[in-house]
Structures are given as C-alpha cells and as structure tokens.
Amino acid sequence: MAVLGLPDDPPCRLLREALARQGTPTLFLDQSQRERPLTRARLVPGQGLVGTVTVAGCEHALSSITGLYLRPSDDRRLWPNDAAATQAALAWTRCWIDIAETLRGTVVNRVSAMASNASKLYQSQILAAEGFAVPAMLM
Q1: 3-state DSSP call for residue 134?
Q2: Is the model's pTM score more than 0.85?
Q3: How far apart are the C-alpha atoms of 126 and 90, rounded to whole Å?
C-alpha cells in the first residue's frame, strides 16, 4: 500500500496509523520532503506499468504496490519562494497522478474519477436527472 500526501494532513495520518495497526506495509510518499522518493516509471506494451520507487533507501517495484491513496496537496504552497523546488515537486506529484491512472489495484481518489467534483453544473444536472429539485443557475 502507498499513501501520497503530507504527514500532518489528518486523513493521511489517520490512514497510516490504521494501516500500521493492521500490520500493513506502507510506503509513504511524503510531499513535504524537498528530496522526493526517486520514482522511475514507464509503460511497456504487454507488461503495463514497470518501474520502481525508492523510499528511505529501499527500492520497491511499482508492481508490488497493490493500493494507492492519493491526497495530493498543492505543491506551489510548499515552497512559494523557490521556483525550482516547486517545479520539481509539481512534476513528481504529476508522475504519481499518472501512475495512479495505470496502476493495477485499488486507487482511492483517482484524479480522473474525481473530475466531476470540479463542475457544479454537471453535479446539478445529475441531481436533476435523479429527481432532486435543483434551483435555477446562471452560468
């Protein structure tokens, strides 16, 4: 199991604590670290996602990750005065968002599955189609 987020984020912290109580091995992909875990990934025809992530000096095959919990924070807020660190952080987080799209296994908060969360108009149309009274909107 892998968890991507910030160590002081309550949902990430609570999940990591619950996994530890269960004895579930967990890779924590800590967004707050300037030196992010080295991640190498590529799609190979017929094999799918191939690569590794190195956390705390230990290399793990991406194929060994059976679950991924994504709770990415806005990397631009972590180092507002360091453009290079921000760009590196954004690229690393984007890499994991892309990995989540192709990862075999359970992914919680897959970005593509949450796309509708950003559209109130779309949500309102779904609610209206299900019979809920939706107030008129000006868009």
Answers
A1: coil
A2: no
A3: 32
